[in-house]
Amino acid sequence: MFSMTRAAMAAAFRPAFAGADLREVYLDLPGHGDTPANCPATSQAVLDTVCAWIDHHLDTPVLLAGGSYGAYLAAGIARQRPDLVRGLLLVCPGVTIARHSRNLPDEPPLEAPTGWLDAAPAALHAHLDAALGHRTPAVVATVLAALNSGGPGDPTFQQELQNGPGYALPDENAEVVYDGPVSVISGRQDRIVGYADQFRAMRRYPRGTYTVIDAAGHYLPYEQPALLRSLTQDWLRRTHSNSPD
């Protein structure tokens, strides 16, 4: 997820993969966590850096999982380097990078107890109000712990990446089909990337399963960990069988 670290992603995904007997590898993207900003501030350069790391360090193809911006990149890797990817797990994936072009829910947010955001810094209140569907102090505490975990990152690089002309992948809108096992999991109350664009993108995944979860937003792994685990286990079963049955 953009600006987050491998420690945060391990906290999000490790419980979902428990018992799967996999070698799990979590990466800090360039300019994130402990990885220096060692490439140009474009999403294509970040994607190429991840692909180069996979080529050098892992036996391919791999099972590739990501959340939000990481899922946006993972889908891009499947388009550009399908030889690297045995299956895709996309959680609250970005589909279109430009905020004005995203189809977001227009229903009011779910009710929340009074003071549910009190533990969060004031600067994060608007973001968490838009991002969270499961709106409780316990969820806020879990998300804050994730946001504060791992290395410091490079905020200047992240800002340049997010605000620059290269934030969108050049093939973002390409209708390239990836025919491996895919699971797309979205939050019904995700007002950061929504859930409708993700459903429309399923035409690119003939072996894809799409799920939208109520009482979940953009931080779905921390909001609904039990459901994420169940859906991840189903995806793993399909990747192992490598058949539609």
From TrEMBL:
Residues 17-228 form the AB hydrolase-1 domain. SUPFAM superfamilies: alpha/beta-Hydrolases (SSF53474). Gene3D superfamilies: alpha/beta hydrolase (3.40.50.1820). InterPro entries: AB_hydrolase_1, AB_hydrolase_fold, AB_hydrolase_sf, Epox_hydrolase-like. It holds the Pfam family Abhydrolase_6. PANTHER family: HYDROLASE, PUTATIVE (AFU_ORTHOLOGUE AFUA_4G13070)-RELATED, MONOACYLGLYCEROL LIPASE. This is Lipase LipV. It comes from Micromonospora saelicesensis.
